[in-house]
Write a structure and sequence with these properties.
about 140 residues; mainly alpha
Length: about 140
């Protein structure tokens, strides 16, 4: 069992609520208020979970400058009131930021009994293989 500090527990809650508000904001036709609340909760929750210094180190690495600018720029665009463009920028930045984590996640999901067999279906396996092999930043 992983032990979490109180601030990490708060961060998990904030991140969870942030993801919920982001999803709910997209379901309600890109409601800019819900998306803005979700963005703020997600980023603040992330900083609570991994710590403020590690958050800054993660986002502001030289080789992740493009990804960070797209992600944070997307958050800014949502906050100023253009939710669809902002969400597209955020999603692109998110995939660039966490590109190195995708092969690990795909390898883990392939070992889960039901999900692993779903990922080996003909149409899905080619896409998952492409996602699983990309481990470098472009």
């Amino acid at each position: 069992m992983i032990s979490l500090t109180d601030s990490q527990k708060i961060g998990m809650g904030l991140t969870g609520f942030g993801v919920f508000f982001l999803f709910f904001g997209m379901m309600l036709f890109f409601d800019k208020a819900l998306l803005a609340i979700g963005n703020i909760l997600f980023v603040s929750g992330l900083s609570f979970v991994i710590g403020l210094e590690r958050t800054f180190r993660f986002f502001f690495q030289r080789h992740k400058a493009k990804a960070t600018s797209f992600f944070l720029g997307g958050i800014f665009v949502v906050l100023i009131g253009w939710p669809i463009i902002g969400v597209v920028l955020e999603i692109y930045g998110f995939f660039l930021l966490f590109r190195g984590f995708f092969p690990v996640a795909v390898g883990f999901i392939r070992r889960i009994p039901v999900l692993g067999s779903l990922l080996s279906l003909p149409g899905i396996s080619a896409l998952v293989d492409k996602i699983g092999e990309s481990n470098t930043m472009v």
